[in-house]
Amino acid sequence: MHGTRRHLVKSAALLAAGLGSARAQPRPVGTLVVPFAPGGAADLVARLLAPALTARLGHPYEVVNMPGRVGQLAVEYVATAAPTGDTLLLATNSIFVTAAELCAALGNWDEVLRPVGLLASNGLVLCVSAYAPLPDLAALLAQLRQAAAPPSFGSAGYGTTGHLAMEALMQRAGLHLDHLASTGDALAMRTLLTEQVACCFCNAATARPFVQAGTARALAVTSALRLPAFPTVPTLDEAGFPGFQCTTDFALFAPNATPAPVMRELVAAAMEAMAAPLMRRRLAIAALQPVGTGPQEFAGYLERERAEWRALLSLRQLTADPLDC
Question: DSSP 3-state assignment of 140?
Fold first, then answer.
């Protein structure tokens, strides 16, 4: 009996030691995947969110930029990752709304990913080079109409909100411009400053430093109200295009097979991070609006977004390049 008791006590001690050792093993560095090149608004949101998740979840997250194939490279990487909460996707509505509409071969992202929540929103700014003699939107439209050959406009990529905002403006204004797509807002602004394009819609977070530096001029914003970061810049509604609104929205996703307890942990950490006063101040400095709504509210938002963008894509007869699909 005493020998059996000693054996049970020893076994329990070994088991406890083993569990303690397992608990002591550090989790791998988490990955926050962004489907755009560095320097744009999505990259900025990710780099603000990564340390906030690190602090709340107890292990580090690093940002990995993975542009290409209208976001599909990033979606596939996260969708096939282990569903442990260690690999997440930070994507814009151009990825989780319009990409599947543009290219049916991509399928629906919501079959392979689960939304953690909507994080932030960003109005777009219609920019021109500061060296162009264009004081306002009316002057830009007049110049575009008088051009002997179709001018070009820039964007962060095919199917991004900047691209689609310009498609909507061309439809409303009766214009035809050629499209020069980049792989992020920062690169799109570079094409503007080097005069490869006449104008571009860029996320306010990316456009702001260029406007402040005096290298770009903001002519209009796509938000319903004027942006605090651009208080003197009119909305497109004010500039003669009633009801014209468009925003880039940023959401966080996990692999579809992520267990419910892990999802609850991720949702709580992300929503707490977005509600933190320091995060809200940092977002405001970058001309971003915090949102912070969880997966329940996300479903209704997604339905509205899909209906709106599907109508524009059909009207403009836009499809993705087969090479992207």
Answer: helix
Q: What is the four-CA torsion angle of 174, 179, 183, 184, rounded to 10 degrees?
A: -40
Higher pLDDT, 322 or 96: 96
**First and final C-alpha spacing in the chain:** 70
Q: CB neighbours (10 Å) of residue 263?
A: 18
The alpha carbon torsion through 297, 312, 142, 148 (nearest 10 deg) reads: 140
pLDDT tens readout for residues 263-298:
999 999 999 999 999 999 999 988 899 998 999 999
List of domains in the chain = 28-122+248-316 (3.40.190.150), 123-221 (3.40.190.10)
SS (H, E, C) 47-75: HHHHHHHHHHHCCCEEEEECCCHHHHHHH
Residue pair 102/319 in contact by the 8 Å Cβ criterion: yes
Report the C-alpha gap between 303 and 72 in whole angstroms: 21
Percent of the chain with pLDDT over 90: 68
Global pTM reads 0.83
